[in-house]
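Input record (one chain):
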Amino acid sequence: MKTCELVSAGGVAFREGGGKRQIVLIKTAAEGRWQLPKGIIDPGETPEIAALREVREEAGITCEILEKIDVIEYWFVDRYGEEPFRTHKYVHFFLMKYLSGDIADHDDEVFESRWVEPVEAVKMLSFETEKALVARAAASLG
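The corresponding structure, as predicted from the sequence alone:
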């Protein structure tokens, strides 16, 4: 089986209002799972630029980066092409502050985008690595 490597970037984007902090999650259209917005870094992009672009495309919002949280890595088998292949994926995640936009303005890769409190986000997220990222981001914000 062939093996490839992918590098992506995404964000833990938050907003504050009414005494509450919320994080944006997306529900993917294809798999129907809740996750953080992220995507492949395009040629010529930095991880930071890609993360901001992906959050804008998938969650419909514009943000600013506060800090890098971590780079996670994992393996999966991609079965979407003619032949399955192993993928080693690295994802650069950034803590982001919401500036503007509407979560209804997401792209068609996303079924739904939703603001949720961090405790609820940890319950909803499909991946353990992303649950840990949200917990770290929440602790960093205090």
